[in-house]
Amino acid sequence: MNVLHKDSYTILAVDDAKDSLLLLECDLQQAGYDVLLADSTESAFEYLKSTQIDLLLLDMYMPGQTGLSILMKIKADSQFDHIPIIMMSASNDEDQVVAALELGANDYVNKPYNSKILLARLKNSLVLMEKTIQLEALANTDFLTKVNNRGSFESMVNKAINQANREKHALALAMFDLDFFKKVNDKYGHESGDKALVEFARILTASFRDYDVVGRIGGEEFAVCMLNSTIKEAFNACERCRQLLMNSAIQIEFDGKIEEIYITVSVGLVSEAPPINDYDDMLRRADHMLYQAKENGRNRTYV
Ligand code: GH3
Ligand code: MG
Ligand code: MG
Ligand code: MG
């Protein structure tokens, strides 16, 4: 059964023929979709840039630029390449249809279209898009703490490194390792340990800016990559997090009653100005700093 999950979906219809657009608008609105109409490539891209579009209905032949070249432009842009596209055309030029599908169009519908069939295909494309988004989120998220998992963290940091090199600003990377965490598990059980990990991830995420990248890179090891922040700002953020954790009572169930426990974290921080070499190198250096923080008493940040 194909089920959609959002309250509303925005469909952008692109066609140079105004009457085609009005017909589509009528059918799509009747089916409960929000509809935007564009009769040129320019206005299509204006909508794409300014509005969250869930699906594109794209006419194959448009004056000036063919639908195929618009399709290529969208698929080449990582901002838009996830948007499902259904091509529409009155011509039965099979080479064009095959070319569109090969270029990444999700589906093709002949004009004049049968509105029931168009709506059914459109819904299928939307369902498939939602499933893809869900799977991508699952593949990138740590199941327990909901922060980025190790693989996703690495790929996001690599993007951040490229951006930092391009824009010539420094990048900071901090590694966090909970102190004596084995003891928490030994004394209170693995489930309580899990709860403490979730609580730490919440505090960690709250301590940094939305555009900093937070990830769980091992059992009780986390890392944060800070874009465009000085070493002092990065240090302050790490310290804020460390102190917040130290002062946060974590409630766990133990021996049939609720108990409050306190945990601490050690932090290793490094910062690098462009040209930044690579992720592994930064992580190794942060890990070395973390080792120093552990050696020198734990519950501290080493730079
Ligand atoms: P240190 O201060 O030197 O880091 O001591 P530690 O005890 O934290 O370090 P150690 O590496 O000896 O132990 C890490 C512990 O983290 C052991 C392991 O059971 C626990 N751990 C790792 N992943 C999970 C998890 O997903 N859930 C729970 N509950 N515990 C975990
Ligand atoms: Mg046309
Ligand atoms: Mg560890
Ligand atoms: Mg530890």
UniProtKB/TrEMBL annotation:
Keywords tagged on the record: Phosphoprotein, Two-component regulatory system
Q: What class of enzyme is it?
A: transferase
Superkingdom, natural source? Bacteria
Q: Where is the Response regulatory domain?
A: 10-126
Q: Which residues carry this modification: 4-aspartylphosphate?
A: 59
This enzyme's EC code(s): 2.7.7.65
Task: Cite the GGDEF domain residue spans from the record.
Answer: 169-303
* Catalytic activity reported: 2 GTP = 3',3'-c-di-GMP + 2 diphosphate
Q: What is this protein called?
A: diguanylate cyclase
Organism from which the protein derives? Thalassotalea insulae
Range covered out of full length: 1 to 303 of 445
